[in-house]
Amino acid sequence: MNFFFNLGRYILLMRRVFSKPDDSREYFKAIGKEIVFIGYNSLLIVFVISFFIGAVITIQTAYNMTNPILPTYLVGLGTRDSMILEFSSTIVAIVLAGKVGSSIASQIGTMRVTEQIDALEIMGVNSASFLISPKIIASLCTFPILCLLSMVVGIFGGWIAGEFTGAVSSDQYIYGIQYMFIPYYMVYSVIKSVFFGVIITSISSYFGYFTTGGALEVGQSSTKAVVNSTLVVLLFNLILTSILL
Amino acid sequence: MIEIQNISKSFRNTQVLFDISTSFEEGKVNLIIGQSGSGKTVLLKSIVGLHEVDAGNIFFHGRNFTTMSFKERKEIRKEIGMVFQGGALFDSSTLEENVMFPLRMFANMSVEEARERANFCLKRVEVENRNNLYPAEISGGMQKRVAIARAIALNPKYLFCDEPNSGLDPRTAIVIDNLIKEIITEYNITCVVNTHDMNSVMEIGDKIVFIYQGKKWWEGKRDEIWETNNVELNDFVFASELYKKIRKSKL
């Protein structure tokens, strides 16, 4: 019952979120701020995580390739495909669910418990649209870019790790990352990242928007936002993969 | 003028307001008083539509707010200013941006015009040369004043204040009370103030509605409070020894 209650309330909230904005000037200003907050401020964590994931995939793949018949350039191919197909979209999305999702839920939740959302409503502002839609639009713009950057940094991390540990030579690695490249994999990954961006921002906003109580409940909303958006991201990962591949 | 008729409100299985009817006059300070938990804030938030009432009607100058569509309500809300208990200023905006916000959203003004109006409102509430500070950088009393400035920025017809001087020292509380009184008289606003501060009742209250356990228990003018025999009201208003003595001397 609780699931259906939340689902219904989420759909009704999204209807309000995507209604016509009250003032386009303030709206575009808010989108700009959110792009910086969601995208630019997440660059460092995405770079660090992607670099290390790429490095670890390279070392692990090389370690597992004990058969001498297998050419070493397959290490590069494995790193490339792992990063493009799964890690750059899904793992980065899960990390961002923690960073961006908890931040959105606590930001909107604090606004709710300190009556700032009520103040917006009293002024005649559609608070759901004003607060949530710039975040969703910003995530639509930034998540694909973060995903693409993550691919580049992850593959670069794999190259550095292969070179420094001697797991694979530069020539072999670079040959491997170009070998049998299927551009559609990137499209698939970017499509997933768009969905994940919308899922993370909308679910986190939902939990923040309906926070009641005080500081304790804001924390609880933040936790719920991260847990639920991560679960939905994983579910959609499965659905989208079965549809798109 | 605001008129409310037979308002009831409950949350899940708990009824908070029971069949409340009253009216609030223009250009007067109408106070809703009562103990904590009596339903004052729920009543105030129901009047402005932040809570949907279960039964009853609310009229803003004859316009039935309860039967209006979302769009129609939005128009009325542009005529409403509200000061919340904690100020409810936007944390991420400066004081000037806070006051400019409703102007930028609804007044169709240029940035310069909105800034000019915001500065006028801030000056009116005696907050000057602090435009670029954030709410967290100023005192509680000043936050309330900025909240009043934001509430009057669009020249509202109706002003609602939810415990505007709670958490303030007595001197600052009086300053806030006087400011509300002056602004209401100056702009002929219909004003409803929620309070349990007896100084406010005695200083600025024109009409007083006493809420007890979610019901309208008493209503009347400020001077009538001294002579009332209503036991619950007397228990509430004259709870302190000081007020008991004052009442004795008055009678």
Describe the structure.
- The complex is a heterodimer of chains A (245) and B (251).
- With 245 residues, chain A is mainly α.
- Chain A has one domain (27-244).
- Helix content of chain A is 84%, strand content 0%.
- Chain A has 9 helices and no strands.
- Chain A has helices at residues 2-17, 24-39, 43-64, 73-113, 116-122, 127-165, 170-178, 184-209, 215-244.
- In chain A, helix 4 (73-113) runs antiparallel to helix 9 (215-244).
- The two termini of chain A are 34 Å apart.
- The mean pLDDT of chain A is 94.
- Chain B is an alpha/beta fold.
- Chain B has 2 domains: 2-79 and 158-250, Rossmann fold (3-Layer(aba) Sandwich), CATH 3.40.50; 87-155, no CATH class.
- Chain B has helices spanning 40-47, 70-77, 95-106, 111-124, 140-152, 170-187, 198-204, 231-237, 241-250, and strands at 2-11, 14-24, 29-33, 55-60, 63-64, 80-83, 158-162, 190-195, 207-212, 215-221.
- In chain B, the strands form 2 sheets. Chain B has a 6-stranded mixed sheet, sandwiched between helices.
- The longest helix of chain B has 18 residues, at 170-187.
- The model of chain B has no long low-confidence stretch (mean pLDDT 89).
